[in-house]
Each structure stands twice: as C-alpha cells, then as structure tokens.
Amino acid sequence: MEHPAGSASPPVRDVVDYELLFDCVHCGLCLEACPTYKVTRAEMDSPRGRVYLMKALAEGRLALDDDAARHLDLCLGCRGCETACPSGVRYGRLIEDARVFVEKNYARGRADRLVRRLVGMILPYPRRLGATLAPLRLAERLRMRGLVTLALSGRPREWMELLPPLRKAPDQRTSTEAAHAPAPGAPAVAVHHGCVTQVLADSENLNSERVLAAAGYRITKLRRTVCCGALDLHSGNLKRARQFARANVREIIRSGADAIVSAASGCSTAIAGYGELLKDDPEFAADARAVSAKLRELSSLVLERGAPKFREMRCAVTYHDACHLVHGLGVREAPRKLLKSIPGLRLIEMPESDMCCGSAGSYNLTEPAMARQLARRKAERALATKARYVVLANPGCEFQIAAELRRRRSRTEVVHLADFLAMALER
Ligand code: SF4
Ligand code: SF4
Q1: Where do the domains of the chain lie, and which CATH numbers do they carry?
Q2: According to the model, what pLDDT value does residue 288 have?
Q3: C-alpha span between 215 and 308 (Å, rounded)
Q4: CB of 20 closer than 6 A to ligand 2?
Q5: Element (H, E) at 190
C-alpha cells in the first residue's frame, strides 16, 4: 500500500515511529515558527525539512553523514513547530527518537564528543555540578570572577558567561519558609527540585513552594530528587532518561502528593511524559501514568485557589514564554493573568515572546553559535519593551537571557516567575 505522502518504500531503518512522519502534509505553516529556519532560511533547518530528512534516513535513501546529523543537531527541540502545525505532527516525539538514532549511528568528532560527555556526566548530578563549580564559587567570593572570565577564551568563556551569580544576595528571593498555614483539606503539592536548578537557582524551587503555600496548598517535600531525565531525552540517551524517570516516579508516589510542580519547564514536560516513556515497563507503567497526570504548572495551580494577596509593585514587566511551557504544556495565559493580578504592574508584550531564546536544555553548551544568535534576538525584543523586568518560568532561559543582557550592560533584570511572585507577596 502506498503511504499518503506518496512513498511506497517501507522503512529499512528504525529512526523514528515511521507512521508519524505521514502526519506532515508539507504545508510549510511551521516554517516561520521555527527559530533555526528564521536564522538560516535553509529548508533542511526547518521542521518540514527535518521531517523529510528523517523519512529519507528511515527509507535508506540518505546516509547519516555530517550534513544530516548537523541539521538534526541544530534543532532546538523547542516544539514551536507543534504549536504552528495544523496537522498535529508530533514533532517533539520525532526529534527525540531521531536523536537516539543519531547517537547510536553517528561518529562525532572528538571535541563534540568531549563536550557532550562532560555535559552528560556533570549536569544531571547536583553533587558533581556543585563540586565542579566550587573553585568558581571561591573566585566569586574573592571578587575575582570577572578576572577568571577574562582569562578564559573560546567555549569555556562562553560557558562561564552563561553562569548566574553563584551566591544570590540574601533578600526576599531566597526566603525558604512557607509562612502560610494550609487550608484544612488543602491538596498536597510537591515541588521537584531538579538537578541544575537546585544548584544554580534553588530560590526558584523554594519560592515556588512559598507561593503555593500562600495560595493555600500543603507543601510536601520529596525525600530524594534526581534529574527528571529531560537532558537525556534531548540528547538521545533514552536508557538513562528511563532510569531517572523510575526513581522520580517511585519517590513522587511515595510522597502522596496530589500535584507535582517544577520550576523548570523542560522538567515539567519530561515528567508529563513519564507515562509515555515508561509505558512498556510492567513494573512502572501505571505509576508513571499517575505521576504524569499529577504534573501541574505553578501559575495555573495558584490561580485555581485564587491569586494570593500581592503588594503593589509599580513596574513594567515583559514575559518570555519558555518553549516547553507554551509549546509542550500549552501554558500561555495563566502566568500573564497572575502577573496582571499584582497591583501596579504593567505587562508589556514583547514580539515573538514564544520563540526560543536558544537555551533549550544544554543546547547553548553544545550549539553556542546558533544559541547566541537567538539570545541576541530575544534580548533585542525584550529591551525594546523598555520593561524593567523580564519574567519567565524556566531557569535555563533566565541564565541565557540574563547573560545576553549582562553583555549589553543592560540594567533590565531577568527574574523567574516564582521569585517574582514571592517578591510581590504581602508579608
Ligand atoms: S523543535 Fe523548534 S527548532 Fe526544531 S524544528 Fe521545531 S520549531 Fe524548529
Ligand atoms: S506545519 Fe505540520 S504539516 Fe505543515 S509542513 Fe510543518 S510539520 Fe508538516
């Protein structure tokens, strides 16, 4: 039987779920929603081009050479194309599977291998990341971080520039106590503290708890948090992604939480996908589905019980939509609604607010050139609003946009939504 897209060739390689490729009708409506296409204007750097490419690879009409791997590597996995696609192409699923195929079958150059290995060995493990950053923490304490950065060049310097200050000032943003008593019978919420987030941006976890407590939820702590697996899903390491997912499923079920929240949008999407990821695991499939169903987004959950009492904040704010929140979970209005409920706050929309900033998990570490172009584009649009704050709900976007604003010596502050809401809470 001929497939609707006109190919009679059966797949000869297991690249992706082949049938899913036929959802694409090649209309091109996704092209302008794709950040990499916007930058390169090359069809093969567009969602449609990559669908062609996956199909050609699957049918054995194309070899997985440097060019093919390059076009797939350059995809941010931002899923902007899914939102734009009228045919319901499951692009996120396709690119995750294609990455597994690339990792198994493509021989990367030595430098690329080294970078990816370092990222995979360090980032998902908070202790390793903490130990790696210890010398920098010391340099920062001695006020020598600027000097250390200047002494570096190339990739290490770019990485250093992306890092946020390692010691945030002990202001209200790092307040840890949930000072509000939960309403009787209030649902229990657990915040998944993530891996990178708990080392570099723990205030976002603690303030998520604080804001949820202020909205009347009961906060339950997870005893042990491991990486959600998103970094592995985005880099083709399905085996370890499943290991992390099982550990998290076990702990979330044990906690008895009614809902699970993450301060990182990529982690939220990964947890929402546990049901699919572990569907063939006889021991975990049912619990994984239950955990996925518990995944909620901070602002939507807060609004369910009515926005807490906020103090007046006379300021202009622009909101950046983190990709996995807006394109993965479809959350667009709730954060805006919550921000607008703060007395005195003026929300100014920036153009392309839902276009990827180039952070994309570890993309800005492995694809720095494209990531930087997208960071510049985002910074220009944010600065054009003249807002004092760029608010967003993902630490990776925060580091990426803040680094670009620092390079421009801008005084615009980039603040995570949880930190911002905690600042606005009445004491
Ligand atoms: S996931 Fe993002 S970068 Fe990749 S094809 Fe879709 S829109 Fe383009
Ligand atoms: S919008 Fe959807 S159907 Fe149209 S080309 Fe893009 S992926 Fe294919």
Answers
A1: 18-105 (1.10.1060.10), 172-301 (1.20.1050), 308-424 (3.40.50.11810)
A2: 98
A3: 5
A4: no
A5: strand 188-192
* Chain mean position to CA 427: 31
pLDDT tens for 209-268 read 999 999 999 999 999 899 999 999 999 999 999 999 999 999 999 999 999 999 999 999
Helix, strand, coil % over all residues of the chain, rounded to 5:
55, 5, 40
Residue 1 pLDDT more than 80?
no
Q: What is the reported pLDDT for 179?
A: 52
- Dump strand ranges (E) for 207-320: 218-219, 259-262, 315-319
Tokens 């995944």: give the residue: 295
Q: Whose CA is nearest to atom 5 of ligand 1?
A: 47
- Please tell me the predicted confidence (pLDDT) of residue 57: 96
3-state secondary structure of 30: coil
Residues 6+ apart with CB under 8 A from 373: 39, 358
What is the secondary structure of 248-308 as a DSSP string? HHHHHHHHT-SEEEESSHHHHHHHHTHHHHTTT-TTTHHHHHHHHHHB--HHHHHHHT-PP
Atom of ligand 2 minimally distant from the CA of 84: 1
How confident is the model over 395-424, as a mean pLDDT?
A: 97
The pLDDT tens digits for 274-284 are: 999 999 999 99
In the 3-class helix/strand/coil scheme, how is 150-169 assigned residue by residue? HHCCHHHHHHHHHCCCCCCC
User: Tokens representing 181?
Assistant: 């008593």
Closest atom of ligand 2 to CA, residue 28: 5
Report phi then psi at 6, rounded to 5: 100, 0
3-state secondary structure of 277: helix
Q: pTM higher than 0.90, yes or no?
A: yes
